[in-house]
What does this fold into?
Amino acid sequence: MKNVAPSRSSQSSDPPVWLGQVYDRRRRRTVRLVQLSIAALTHAGERPSLSAIARVSKTIDPAEPRGVSESAILHNEAAYELYRQQSERKRQNTRRPSSKRHIDMGHGSRIRVNADRDHGRARQRYLRASKAAHVERLLIAEKAYAEMENRWIRTADDLLVWIVLVDRLVTTTRTSGPSR
It folds into this structure.
């Protein structure tokens, strides 16, 4: 079963018998290059998309400089299955929200607080949101800012207490003189 509609140019769905070995060899080549490309992309920390696999497959094996095309991956059942397994695995891993990068808004929502987020996407999301949603986010952001400022003030106070204690200790040590 092909993953893409069959070509309309061929009348027969079965290949000629004398081309069976050629097609089989090409299928195995495609699967091998897809496996190597996915491994290289995963090792490099890139997402193994169809276009990335096709791009990397041209450089992965010097003996096969042509690589594979996206349509070859889609038409080869084994290669397509490898691609789908990898894309599903990646999708499952990336959907878990990180508690460090979000602030809990209550009622199951989270606000992203990462400074290196995509500002264009955030802007579009804000433009689509309702006024009530903006008010809710603003109140939560104000609360988070107040908590952060209180934490900063407590830390500064603690630091000041330590500085005063160390200063007093140094002063009493100097006035009493060295003990020998």
Notes: The chain has a mean pLDDT of 81. Helices lie at 20-44, 50-60, 70-75, 77-94, 119-128, 131-176. The beta strands are 102-106, 109-112.
